[in-house]
Automatic annotation (TrEMBL), chain A:
Its EC number is 2.7.13.3. GO terms for molecular function: kinase activity. InterPro entries: Bact_2-comp_sensor_kinase (IPR050640), GAF (IPR003018), GAF-like_dom_sf (IPR029016), HATPase_C_sf (IPR036890), HATPase_dom (IPR003594), His_kinase_dom (IPR005467), Sig_transdc_His_kin_internal (IPR010559), Sig_transdc_His_kinase_LytS_TM (IPR011620). Pfam families: 5TM-5TMR_LYT, HATPase_c, His_kinase. It is an enzyme of class 2 (transferase). It is found in: Cell membrane. It comes from Ferrimonas gelatinilytica. This is histidine kinase. Its main location: membrane. It catalyses: ATP + protein L-histidine = ADP + protein N-phospho-L-histidine. The chain crosses the membrane at residues 49-66, 78-99, 148-167, 173-195. Keywords: ATP-binding, Cell membrane, Kinase, Membrane, Nucleotide-binding, Phosphoprotein, Transferase, Transmembrane, Transmembrane helix, Two-component regulatory system. Residues 472-564 form the Histidine kinase domain. It is a multi-pass membrane protein.
UniProtKB/TrEMBL annotation, chain B:
This is Two-component system response regulator BtsR. The modification 4-aspartylphosphate is found at D55. The keyword DNA-binding applies. Keywords: DNA-binding, Phosphoprotein, Two-component regulatory system. The keyword Phosphoprotein applies. PROSITE patterns: HTH_LYTTR, RESPONSE_REGULATORY. The gene is btsR. SUPFAM superfamilies: CheY-like. Residues 136-237 form the HTH LytTR-type domain. It comes from the Bacteria. Residues 4-117 form the Response regulatory domain.
Length: 565, 238
């Protein structure tokens, strides 16, 4: 006796009602963190446990809500088994199917055994589908409602076949299948598809949520400002790792350069030791290919390369870029049994961008200061040999000629050398700088005699003005070395100061006019350093300005902000 | 036998010091001092010293540049003096030339003088010389003038010495025609004339094999037969 179309429609409606209740429950579930393993796909045991419990309950409820039909139960039990298999794999699917099946078995009826077996088979089948998609790296397809519909439909057809094969008497089974086949195949498939589309929406929402990760990255940026200015080393990265750890709530944070681990904080710090070489192939991959590597533990296996007992189960590795390509990585880890992952590719990339920028800035500052220090040393060293030996030769002559004049000259030379040695890279008063060039010029005037005359006119009111060390002296030295000493006529050097409300302009002028249009390295070096130091200290509107009228004069202006102690 | 000695240094005290140090040596007779290379060359030509102490760092023309401007046939012993010049010192050492470092130690000076007396110092100074002069020291009245070689049209000698002619005038120089011929782009065209090939506008050939060069500024210079061929070849004439 085949069922009338009316009966079939009636059954479909009843089952749909049941399914709706089911979906309402599912919807509520998506609002709790319990859904996270479904959204992220369960991999680790606790996740699978959650799946098992949840979907077993669904299975049992499906049986309870079922419709008594011809000594059997038309139901939506299959949805639970199929979904658990799809989300958790064959083992989870099998166990959920078995649990739901055994529960059904306990209720008796002529299809009890057939239903038990078929539900278990359905769970296993869905699980195998999961495995297949996973092996072909199409896991995303799991969330495609059409595919889920197809899987569920096939599973339900299988159930019908099993009922026909196992349930006896066959005539009853055949009658039953005629009644329930269409409604159950249709409703279970539709239900599974709808459920999955709900999960898919949830995933999309989770992705959207990741924009909040940008806010996290910003927070990290704010807290890490300036730390990397001291360089990309173990001390600075340890601080950075601590901040990322606190802000992201991941299980562990590591920072590496291209060769070794610089900082590690969180789970596993007992065997992840800063200073040790990078051993993870994933990290090397991120460095070599300059791309994000996300071993989420699902699509891509993650196993700690140091210890088999390491609790970390997934890792996001993001390369850090300096001015010449990759200089290291940031790694975020989650533990294997962690229920709710904080790992997220967007966040990782955001953090990496923030850090890369800071590293670049830090590098810049570091190099700038190193350069200035090195150059200053050079400047200090640069003046010595030629000046010093000529000075000593002059002293040798004067000692012979008029010993009483030699003594003050020796004192001036000593004062000059001492001041040169003890000067730092900071600022001094104009008075100190004038004294420094006075000692220098006294010696040079003794050396050149009437071939060098000097005129300094700086009002006393300006004596407390501040200027960088080694500002005027290199200019005066330059005026002699590349100016007055190269002409046959008597040389003349003039130094004067011109203040405005906000600026102080100091000028050093010689009468040689021999400033080369394209200074050779050795000639331009001293002035170049002076210029760059001033700009570095006060800004680009300050610095040196050279005017040269060949054969007439070279005039070098020093523009400084007007500041006094 | 005493050595006629000249000191060239732009620093008065440095010359004094050197003179004082040389007083200890009886065979050294200081015949003159010069405050730059141009005066120095004039004195070398005029006094024909045996020994010259020359500072390297001097205005306009350095001691080494001066070397190339001297007549190599009458080259005195040259001793270079410097306070600090790594570049020059390595050149001296590579060519076994003697040099002194300021301030000069008396013992070191004595050693150098011994080498000079025994003629151990190499006499051929060409390794130190720049092969081509780029500027020529000249005198115009009381002014010392440096003329870039590419401004020179021709050079000539007369009873009063050697002169360099440029478009802007003629200047006296202490360089000999021979030195100019060897070390500048000027070419010999007559016993008493050198000409810059760049300034030749035309060559008028005359009967008897000689000729006359007209320079770009309209000057006429005699070309004698023996030099005409080389000049014609310079421009590709057969």
């Amino acid at each position: 006796m085949s069922p009338s179309p009316l009966e079939t429609v009636e059954l479909i409606i009843k089952l749909t009602q049941q399914m709706s209740l089911y979906l309402v429950l599912a919807y509520l579930l998506t609002k709790t963190p319990v859904l996270r393993p479904m959204v992220d796909l369960a991999v680790h045991l606790p996740h699978k446990l959650i799946l098992y419990v949840t979907f077993s309950i669904f299975c049992i409820l499906g049986t309870y809500f079922g419709e008594q039909t011809q000594g059997a139960i038309a139901n939506t039990r299959a949805m639970g088994a199929i979904l658990s298999g799809l989300l958790g794999g064959p083992v989870t699917g099998f166990l959920v199917g078995l649990t739901g099946g055994l529960h059904r078995y306990s209720l008796g009826g002529f299809t009890d055994l057939a239903c038990t077996i078929s539900t278990t088979v359905e769970g296993l089948f869905a699980g195998l589908m999961h495995l297949r998609l996973r092996r072909s790296f199409q896991l995303e397809q799991l969330f495609n409602p059409f595919r889920v519909f197809a899987v569920a439909a096939v599973a339900e057809v299988m159930q019908m076949v099993i009922i026909l094969l196992i349930a006896r008497p066959f005539a009853d089974a055949w009658a039953l299948v005629q009644t329930i086949a269409i409604p159950m195949i249709l409703v279970n498939s539709l239900g599974a598809a709808l459920f999955m589309s709900m999960i898919r929406d949830q995933r999309t929402m989770a992705e959207t949520l990741s924009s909040t990760h940008s806010a996290k990255a910003l927070k990290i940026a704010e807290r890490t400002v300036g730390i990397l200015a001291s360089g990309f080393n173990q001390q600075s990265t340890a601080k950075i790792a601590r901040i990322i750890f606190e802000e992201t709530h991941v299980s562990a944070v590591a920072i590496t350069d291209t060769e070794k681990l610089l900082a590690f904080i969180g789970t596993g710090d007992d065997h992840h030791k800063p200073g040790t070489p990078i051993s993870s192939a994933l990290t090397m991959e991120a460095i070599e290919q300059n791309r994000v590597v996300f071993a989420d533990g699902v699509q891509r296996e993650y196993q700690c390369s140091l210890s088999r007992h390491c609790q970390l189960g997934s890792s996001l590795i993001v390369p850090l870029n300096g001015d010449n390509g990759v200089i290291g990585t940031v790694k975020l880890y989650e533990k294997k049994q962690r229920l709710f992952l904080h790992l997220n590719q967007t966040l990782g990339e955001g953090i990496a961008r923030v850090l890369s920028n800071q590293i670049l800035h830090g590098r810049y500052l570091e190099q700038k200061s190193l350069l200035t220090q090195a150059e200053l040393k050079l400047l200090q060293a640069q003046i010595s040999p030629h000046f010093l030996f000529n000075a000593l030769n002059t002293l040798a002559a004067i000692t012979r000629r008029s010993p009483d004049k030699a003594r003050p000259l020796i004192l001036d030379l000593a004062a000059f050398l001492r001041a040169n040695l003890k000067r730092g890279t900071g600022e001094i008063s104009l008075k100190e700088e004038l004294e420094h060039i006075r000692t220098y010029l006294t010696i040079e005037q003794a050396r050149f005699g009437d071939r060098l005359s000097v005129e300094i006119s700086v009002p006393e009111a300006l004596h407390d003005a501040r200027l960088p060390t080694f500002t005027l002296q290199p200019l005066v030295e330059n005026a002699i070395k590349h100016g007055t000493s190269t002409i046959l006529e008597p040389g003349k050097i003039r130094i004067w100061a011109k203040p405005t409300a906000s600026e102080l302009v100091l000028t050093v002028e010689d009468n040689a006019g021999a400033f080369p249009e394209h200074p050779k390295e050795s000639e331009g070096l001293g002035l170049n350093i002076v210029h760059r130091r001033i700009q570095g200290m006060y800004g680009p509107e300050f610095g040196l300005h050279v005017e040269c009228e060949p054969g007439e004069y070279t005039r070098i202006q020093v523009r400084l902000p007007r500041r006094s102690e | 036998m005493s050595l006629k000695t000249l000191i060239i240094d732009d620093e008065l005290l440095a010359r004094d010091e050197m003179a004082s140090l040389l007083e200890a040596h009886e065979d050294i007779k200081i015949v003159g001092e010069a405050a730059n290379a141009i005066e120095g060359m004039a004195l070398i030509n005029q006094l024909q010293p045996d020994l010259v102490f020359v500072d390297i760092q001097m205005p306009k023309i350095t001691g080494i540049e001066m070397l190339a401007m001297l007549d190599s046939d009458r080259m005195p012993y040259m001793v270079f003096v410097t306070a600090y010049d790594e570049h020059a010192i390595s050149a001296f050492e590579n060519n076994a030339f003697d040099y002194l470092l300021k301030p000069v130690a008396p013992e070191r000076l004595a050693k150098t003088l011994n080498r000079v007396r025994q003629a151990e110092q190499p006499r051929d100074l060409t390794p130190l010389m720049e092969s081509v002069l780029t500027h020529l020291p000249c005198v115009s009245g009381k002014t010392l003038k440096i003329v870039p070689c590419d401004e020179v049209e021709y050079a000539f000698s007369d009873l009063s010495g050697v002169h360099i002619a440029t478009r802007s005038g003629t200047f006296h120089t202490h360089l000999t025609l021979k030195t100019l011929e060897q070390r500048s782009p000027l070419m010999r065209c007559h016993r008493q004339y050198l000409v810059s090939p760049d300034s030749i506008a035309e060559i008028e050939l005359q009967e008897g094999g000689g000729g006359e060069i007209h320079t770009r500024s309209g000057q006429a210079i005699a070309v004698s037969r023996r030099y005409l061929k080389a000049i014609k070849q310079q421009f590709g004439f057969q």
